[in-house]
Amino acid sequence: MSLLERLNNDMKTAMKNKEKDRLSVIRMVKAALQNEGIKLGTSELTEEAELTVLTRELKQRKDSLREFSNAGREDLVNKIQTEIEILEVYLPEQLSEEDLVEIVKETVHEVNASSKADMGKVMAAIMPKVKGKADGGLVNKLVQQQLS
């Protein structure tokens, strides 16, 4: 089942169960997917493009969560936290930190990186491998640790 089909089914369920928060998030994601399709000039997005949109939406919400927390807006923090939980359902299973460390080690070895100057090379090689399965900030931190 494609992501769009899954979203449509979940949207119907959310409507029947009167789950306003879930319905709102699903509609936002569907709109983002449609906008991406228009931008790319295609009616059907690849799985990778869908994943890109989902991770972008999740990142935006995590950034908002951080800003609202710093501003002391607990009402908005709770709302954004709920949206993040709903979005995470549609992402592939996240890699554990141990698995991520192994991937980082393999990639550092593959590109023959030896210092922090090779950081860009390592990140460019590793991100396609973990796209949607790991947070970019965590990957960055692990690569830095490995190169130091």
Automatic annotation (TrEMBL):
Pfam families, per database record: YqeY (PF09424)
InterPro entries: Asn/Gln_tRNA_amidoTrase-B-like, GatB_Yqey_C_2, YqeY/Aim41, YqeY/Aim41_N
N-terminal signal peptide: none
One MF annotation (Gene Ontology) recorded for this entry: carbon-nitrogen ligase activity, with glutamine as amido-N-donor
Name of the protein in question: GatB/YqeY domain-containing protein
Species of origin: Bacillus timonensis
Classification lineage: Bacteria, Bacillati, Bacillota, Bacilli, Bacillales
